[in-house]
Amino acid sequence: MADAIESPGAGRLAGKSCVVTGAASGIGRAVAERFAREGARVVATDLDAEGLRRLADELPRAVSTVVGDVSREDDARRMITAAVERHGRIDVLVANAGVLPLSEITEADAEEWDRVMAVDGRGMFLTCKYAIEAMAGPGGAGGAIVCLSSISGEAGQRGQAVYGPAKFVASGLTKHLAVEWADRGIRVNAVAPGTITTERVRRLQDEPGGPDYLTAIEKLHPMGRLGTPAEVAAAVLFLASDDASFITGAVLPVDGGYLAQ
Ligand SMILES: NC(=O)c1ccc[n+]([C@@H]2O[C@H](COP(=O)([O-])OP(=O)(O)OC[C@H]3O[C@@H](n4cnc5c(N)ncnc54)[C@H](O)[C@@H]3O)[C@@H](O)[C@H]2O)c1
């Protein structure tokens, strides 16, 4: 079915050069697949070389890959320069790579805080920094950045003492960069998903206590269900595309009504 998914030259991101971090699984993979279907040239990046290889095998004309760690400065820079070298410039960055631990503050320690902030905070900062340098520099044509925040980056929750603050960094970085670059042709927005049925969340129903836990989480969302990676990818696509040309600094909930409560 790869040929049906790839349609170069057509679509809402036709001809755009896009980098998606954390693209080997979950939401990042769904974004890379949707962007490919919308005509983008995607540089998919992740720590997970095998997952990236599977994605590129499915979409060989639209997707190329860079294996690396967003929290490492050289790797983050390499993810962006790969797009510039392969496709002439970078038009879109989706800063998605993240780790999602659940812990109360008494269970967490300083090492966990540093580990999560290194990926979800520093990694997002570094990839945004190098993307903006390329979008605003010689040969750059402006662009759009979409950061992955979360309902946990907009409101307090139980068991998110480390992850939640890291997602507030995502929402905060989005707003500050949006204002800083608004008059220089770069839009910066975020999506704030509720709980999404990624592989990890789907596996919960096979674990002891998992089905009850999942039902309880579903009930927290007014629509009474979890979201899908494809539903998040659709919102990311909107913010990355020219349809959102007068939108910057927004954090768009994709949460079945969670944040409206
Ligand atoms: N799943 C949800 O319910 C949910 C809800 C709200 C927000 N989010 C956000 O969406 C994003 C993606 O989450 P997901 O649920 O798809 O997670 P996931 O674990 O399915 O995918 C995350 C990907 O990021 C990669 N990654 C992790 N650390 C990395 C690093 N240092 N460098 C490069 N790649 C790295 C992983 O290998 C993985 O492929 C995260 O930023 C997360 O905070 C997820």
* Bound small-molecule species: nicotinamide-adenine-dinucleotide
Kindly report how far apart the N and C termini lie: 41 Å
What is the CATH level 1 assignment?
Answer: Alpha Beta
The residue ranges in which pLDDT falls below 50 over 5 or more consecutive positions are: 1-7
Class inferred from helices and paired strands = alpha/beta
Strand order of the largest sheet: 3-2-1-4-5-6-7
Offer a quick outline of the entry.
The chain is an alpha/beta fold and 261 residues long. It has nine helices and seven strands.
Task: Report what the structure shows.
- The structure is a single chain.
- The protein is of the alpha/beta class and 261 residues long.
- The chain has a single domain, classed as NAD(P)-binding Rossmann-like Domain (Rossmann fold, 3-Layer(aba) Sandwich).
- It is 44% helix and 15% strand.
- It contains nine helices and seven strands, in the order αβαβαβαβαβαβαααβ.
- A seven-stranded parallel beta sheet has the order 3-2-1-4-5-6-7, sandwiched between helices.
- Helix 2 (26-37) packs across helix 9.
- Mean pLDDT is 95; it is low at 1-7.
- The structure holds nicotinamide-adenine-dinucleotide.
- Nicotinamide-adenine-dinucleotide binds at residues 21-22, 24-28, 46-48, 51, 69-71, 96-100, 119, 123, 148, 150, 193, 195-196, 198, 200-201.
